[in-house]
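Reagents: none. Just compute today. ELMO domain-containing protein.
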Amino acid sequence: MEAAAAPPPAPAPAAERDPEHHHGCLAVRTSLPRCALGSASSLAGSSDEASCGSPRWIGRGLSCVCIKRKGAYERICMNLTPVQEERLQRLKHRMKVYFDPSRRDHQEALKALWRATYPDQELQGLISEQWKDMGWQGRDPSTDFRGAGFISLENLLFFAKTFSASFQRLLKKQCGNRATWEYPFAVAGVNITFMIMQMLDLQSTKPRTFVRAIFIQMLSEDEWAFDLLYCVAFVVMDKQWLDKNASYMDFNEVLKSTRTQLERELMLDDVMRIEDMPSYSLLC
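Predicted 3D structure written out:
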């Protein structure tokens, strides 16, 4: 998938856990910090509890991989529960859908975004100068979806409907000392979707990062975890923008620092849901 066009050049309540109904490993989340193994060899000759300390591991003989970080080995389990697998496959399907301006449902979604963004303004057409006010690059917003596909439109629509106050605040650049040359709101949103897709690495067949494994467990508890993470990412990006006194040419650097902060927060031991992320409090 080619990268989204960056500015040149530059929630349903989470379900309760029920370990008795899981058939695989709970990724890396437990009520205690993630397991840290003294060495790779200790994995082979120890029981489930001994190899991971106190955390409860569900099932035995599961296929896991160890990754060394900061001098210690930690586990990522490759086995997914049925719920994780089902929701991951649905999310992967969403990520593969390209925006098709000829599809009626895609047209309706675009119109719904306009209504959620400008409830008091009538849209003149799917191709109109009006779209530039939202931060699209031209009169036809469909050309800006090529990098991240239809899910980027779904993300914007979810943000507009779920956190309308934050959405409008960022759209209208209402807070902080703004740059003369601001980032285009809608195009920034498409880039944020693409950044999260890269960060989570969901298309790979094996869990190569802890961030991915952590997110998959969050997804098993809340099917809207990706969309919620998108909303958090958008407000984090805007805060980074203001903190750095950034301008249009700095967008890619701000997006990079946004990803770093998201990864850091997802790795916190007490973050079990998207709502637990410290930056979730920025949403209103």
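The longest strand covers residues 64-69.
Action item: order primers for follow-up constructs.
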